[in-house]
Amino acid sequence: MKKAVLFDLFNTLAEPRPRLEALECEPLGLTPREWAGYFWEPGLCRKRALGGFASGAELIDAACARLPFPVSEAQKAAVLAGRLTRMTRALTDLRPGIAKTLQALRAAGYRLALVSNADIIDIEAWDRSPLAGLFDSVIFSCSVRMAKPDPEIYRKALADLGIEAAEAVFVGDGGDHELDGAKAVGLTTVWTEYLKKKKPEERAVILPFADHHIDDIRELTELIPSL
C-alpha cells in the first residue's frame, strides 16, 4: 500500500506555455529554436538547475553572453520579463483537474512532495500558484543544489515525508531522465503525458522506466489506491 506521491512540476503539473516562447526570444531577433540553442546549452542548463545564479538578471546575462552579437541592457530586461511572464502563467494558470487531483489525493490520506528541476526564474511566481499549499515537501533543485536524476534529491523528499521508497510513487513526464532516477531509488513510477505528448523517439527512451502510463492526471485518483 502506498502512502505518498512525489510529483515533477513542469510538463507534469504546470505547462511552460511554448506559445509564449516568443516573449523571450523576439527582443533578441531570434526564433524559439535559435534561442533554445543558447538558453538550453547543457553547461548553462546544469548551472541554472543547481542554483548557480543569484538572480534572474544574472542568469539572463550569462545566457546572452553566449550569443554571437552584442545585447543591450534593454534587450536583456525584455528577455527576462518575457521569461517571467511565461513561467508565471505556467504556475498560476493550471490545466483542468490538476489542483483537484492533488486535493483528492491529500483528502484520501496521501502525503505529497514536489521534486522539481527548476531555476531561479522558474520559481519566481511559486507563492502565487494554486499548487503552493498542496505539498508536504517542496524541493526545487536550485534551492538544494542537486537535480534529478541524482538519487539524493528523491531521498531528500522521502526523508521529508518520513517514508520508504517502496511506500511511494513518483509521477512525471519523463524529462531529465527523472523516471530512471526514481526507479533506481526504488520508487514506483507513473509516466504522464497530460501536458506534453512525447515524440516516438522520446517515448522509446522513457517507456522502459515507466511502471504505469496515464494520459490524464485525473487518472491518479483511481490508479494510486490500486498500487
Describe the model:
By secondary structure, this protein is α/β, with parallel strands linked by helices. 42% of the residues lie in helices and 12% in strands. It has helices at 22-25, 32-39, 42-49, 56-64, 73-92, 98-107, 141-144, 151-161, 178-185, 200-206, 220-226; strands at residues 4-7, 111-116, 137-140, 168-172, 188-192, 212-214. Strand 5 (188-192), helix 10 (200-206) and strand 6 form a beta-alpha-beta unit.
Give unreliable regions as ranges: none
Considering the protein shown, what is the CATH homologous superfamily of the largest domain? HAD superfamily/HAD-like
Report the count of strand segments.
6
> Using only CA atoms, what is the Rg?
18 Å
* Overall shape: elongated
**Average of the residue pLDDT scores:** 97
Number of helices: 11
Could you give the order of strands across the largest sheet? 3-2-1-4-5-6
Per the CATH scheme, the topology name of the largest domain is Rossmann fold
End-to-end CA span: 6 Å
CATH class of the largest domain: Alpha Beta
CATH architecture of the largest domain: 3-Layer(aba) Sandwich
Helix-strand topology string: EHHHHHHEEHHEHEHEH
Number of domains: 2
Task: Set down the secondary structure blueprint.
Blueprint: E1 4-7, H1 22-25, H2 32-39, H3 42-49, H4 56-64, H5 73-92, H6 98-107, E2 111-116, E3 137-140, H7 141-144, H8 151-161, E4 168-172, H9 178-185, E5 188-192, H10 200-206, E6 212-214, H11 220-226
Parallel strand pairs: 1-2, 1-4, 2-3, 4-5, 5-6
Helix pairs in contact: 4-5
